[in-house]
Amino acid sequence: MENQDFITIGVLILLILLSAFFSSAEMAFSSLNQIKIKHFIINGQKKAQHTLDLSNNFEKLLTTILIGNNIVNIASASIAAVFFLKFWENYGVTISTAVMTTLVLVFGEITPKSLAKKMPEKYAIAITPFLRMFIWILTPLNYIFGLWQKLMNKVFKFEKGASITEEELLTYVSEVQSEGGINENEGELIRSVIDFDDLKVEEILTPRVQVVAVSVDEDVKKIIHKFKHTGYSRLPVFEENIDHIIGVINHKDFYNLVVLEKQPLDTI
């Protein structure tokens, strides 16, 4: 093998590495959670802001990645074909196709995408400077394909719905809880807040005929009996009739001040 052959092999390795870079970038930005990126920004990671900007302009980013990936894959296939034909004139193309397909699939697609999927946010932040450089380099091609995208968007119009629905938010809460990010009580609290506006008054109110209340002149023993048998921690207090509620007594205050210290009921 001549020196030129080693240079060719080096170029092929570089092209496969670039293919791995573009493939992993596509997976990272397709999988990242923007909420986590915003959390990094809040915590002072300035680089994360550029990553968020790229994520918000995903169409342009995806165009750059696909253009770059196709360029390096086509270039590597062409160079490999020439290289193998030099040694095997009759079977060079077949050998080249088999070898490059295997190398690109294993090292240019499957492996980098699998690794990027495991930590998309951190990886996306790390490669953002390089992606911005490629976006600048491929600006002319991005512009041309950008016009094509605009044309397609006009031809195929899709209604843009909410970025996240209530059902999806509840699913996120369940996922975070199952992964240990929040405990069961915190999960129930968040779900109850989300579902709060779905409650009807009739679901939480107590009908008037079922209201347990005490008169301001009620005997202490009767009040103790009502607290004991209802299990309530608070009871409404009325004057003359139950339609004239004048306050609420707390079981703890009632026991400490009225039962133990013998203070009048109206003092609490």
Structure, described:
The chain is mainly α and 268 residues long. The chain has three domains: 3-155, no CATH class; 166-201; 206-260, Roll (CBS-domain), CATH 3.10.580. It is 71% helix and 7% strand. The protein contains twelve helices and three strands. The chain has helices at 3-31, 34-42, 47-56, 58-87, 92-118, 120-137, 139-155, 166-178, 184-195, 201-204, 220-230, 251-260, and strands at 214-215, 234-239, 241-250. It has a three-stranded mixed beta sheet. Helix 11 (220-230) links the parallel strand 1 (214-215) and strand 2 (234-239). Helix 1 (3-31) crosses helix 6, helix 4 packs across helix 7 (139-155) and helix 8 packs antiparallel against helix 9. 19% of the residues are buried. The model has no long low-confidence stretch (mean pLDDT 85).
Percent of residues in helices comes to over 70%
- Summing up helix and strand content along with how strands pair, one would put the structural category as mainly alpha
Q: Percent of residues in beta strands? A: 5-15%
Distance between the termini: 99 Å
Average residue-wise pLDDT: 85
User: Helix and strand succession?
Assistant: HHHHHHHHHHEHEEH
Order of adjacent strands in the largest pleated sheet: 1-2-3
Q: Given the structure, what is the number of helices? A: 12
Largest sheet, strands/sense/barrel: 3 strands, mixed
Task: Give the radius of gyration.
Answer: 34 Å
How many separate structural domains? 3
